[in-house]
Amino acid sequence: MRDEVIIVDYDCGNTGSVINMLKFLGKKSKLSSNPEDLYEARWIILPGVGKFDSAITSLINRGLSEALLSVASQKKTPIMGICLGMQVMCKSSEEGILDGLGLIEAEVKKFPMSFDATLKVPHMGWNSVRIKNQGSIFSGLKDPRFYFVHSFYVDCFQKGDIIGETEYGSRFVSAFQKDNIVGVQFHPEKSHSYGVEVFRNFLGLL
Amino acid sequence: MSLSVRIIPFLLLSSEGLVKTVAFKNRKYVGDPINCVRIFNTKEVDELIILDIDATAEKREPYFDIIADIVSEAFMPVGYGGGVSKIQDFDRLFNIGIDKVVVNTLFYENPKLITEAINKFGGQSIVLSLDVKKDIFGRQRLVSHCGWKIQKLKLEHALAMADEMGFGEVVLNAIHRDGTMSGYDLELVASVNGRLNMPVVALGGAAGPDDFARAMNLGVSGVGAGSAFVFQGPKRAVLISYPSREEIVNLLGD
Q1: Strands A123-128, A145-150: parallel, antiparallel or unpaired by DSSP?
Q2: CA A16 – CA A33 distance, rounded (Å)
Q3: How many CA atoms lie within 13 A of B122 on its CB side?
Q4: Percent of chain A with pLDDT over 70
């Protein structure tokens, strides 16, 4: 197993910033769309910007979804989904009709506009995360704030998987972690020192 | 605590480095772009927007290498605008690590390309800069090409178009206030913010936290400034500053 982070390349994301962050942390990383690399990876980051169905389709077509499911359960490789990457880890999404990867017991919903007409969507900007589990990727962080850009949010079926929550109109799951499976709705690669800590903690998961 | 209003430095890139203008003219040299961004990074700014104000006039593409250097150590959202004219330009900017591409002239000249970009990259990553100029008779006009070309399109039509096209955000840039440090055009900000369901960033005229607070009270999602972050004192000496976390919390009132 190589001491390298594989960043999944599936044409759905702004990967430059994740690469920059890992370089800053002195970690070798490789952008790859080859399933073979996922089997060899020590850590996997699943970034993502775009639409749910096209992301899932792209992962399936490249054989990446099969590889992700396999290494997640067999090798227990730490996998962190960011933004849409977090959402595709769920079972389904109101944004699309296809099944998600189902790496976590959760579904993705649209922000209810009716709840508050002044609520602007996308939820874009800096917001705080209420930490529900300090022994997670949030280890060592106190009252962190992160940068968000999204129009859909995650709802976990198992409350124990929720490690962070954020308020926007109502409360939603901004981070989950179940063993080696981590998902964050915010962009740690764009969140200054708070994001740096999240990456450090994630890279500490083995 | 909830979503914070973003306080956004706007940096103007030119062929000679970073500059600051008054009413889009009278350039003053501010410094080396990479150094300046490094300083803003250590101050943990909410977001940065870099606008190349010469690219369109010089008909050249963005300075991709400089932009790549700038974002390589910027762990915050970075927007870029200037000289974007092909879908490949959007591609390259996003691959480098730019989060948002800001368009202005393209909106009037090739809206189809913007729609293509919005479909490909999502509206959240495409920002419309509406440059508004008020003349001495109080007539309000939209302009492009870094302020020199007057557009016939009316502001309300532009807003309807922005909504329909699915932009993620609108930067409302009051050119008649640019660099004056005399406060935002709050009337303009209020009218536009009330008509759009997407985030609006006020720009043009802010001198500091008091002006930010006034625009925040109108419900904008972001407050932008140039001079307020790069000049200090009546002689406008170049000194990069940004409100501390404590000052921001006081400003936001939470």
Answers
A1: antiparallel
A2: 15
A3: 22
A4: 96
Q: Which residue has the higher pLDDT, B2 or B18?
A: B18
Mean pLDDT for B190-216 is 94
Q: Which of B4, B73, B122 sits opposite A24 (nearest CB)?
A: B73
| Range in A23-37, A119-133, B77-91, B218-232 with the lowest mean pLDDT | A119-133
Q: How confident is the model at residue B252 (pLDDT cuts 50, 70, 90)?
A: confident
Q: What is the ipTM of this complex?
A: 0.88
CB distance A190 to A147 below 8 Å: yes
pLDDT in tens, A105-164: 999 999 876 556 667 778 999 999 999 998 899 999 999 999 999 989 999 999 999 999
Q: Which two tokens stand for residue B165?
A: 């096209």
Put simply, the answer to whether A16 touches B96 (Cβ < 8 Å) is yes
pTM for the full predicted model: 0.92
The single residue listed with the structure tokens 């903690």 is A201
pLDDT at res. B140: 93
Q: Looking at the partner chain, which of A120, A128, A190 has a beta carbon nearest the beta carbon of B99?
A: A190
Give me the residue spans of the domains in chain B: 6-252
Question: Do A120 and B99 make contact, defined as CB atoms within 8 angstroms?
Answer: no
CB atoms B95 and A16 under 8 Å: yes
- For A71, the domain range is 5-203
Quote the tokens at residue B252. Answer: 């936001």
Among the listed residues B123, B129, B126, the one whose alpha carbon sits nearest the alpha carbon of residue B51: B129
Of B99, B168, B219, which has the smallest distance from its Cβ to A122's Cβ? B168
CATH number of this structure's domain B6-252, picked from the four choices 3.40.50.410, 3.20.20.70, 3.30.70.20, 3.40.50.300: 3.20.20.70
In contact, A35 and A58? CB cutoff 8 Å? no
* Closest CA relative to residue B76, chosen from A152, A133, A174, A24: A24
Average pLDDT over residues B111-130: 93
- Residue whose entry in the numeric block shows the structure tokens 């330009």: B89
Asked if the model's pLDDT at residue A206 lies above 70, the reply is no
> Do the chains contact at B71 and A17, CB–CB below 8 Å?
yes
Residues of B whose CB is below 8 A from A147: 47, 76-77
Q: Is the pLDDT of residue A35 over 60?
A: yes
Tokens of B191: 């009218």
Chain B interface, Cβ < 8 Å to A:
1-6, 41, 44, 46-47, 68, 71-73, 75-77, 94-99, 121-125, 168-169, 197-199, 219, 221-222
Are B61 and B36 within 8 A, CB to CB? no
Strand B149-150 versus strand B140-144 pairing type: antiparallel
Residue tagged active-site, from B52, B131, B185, B211? B131
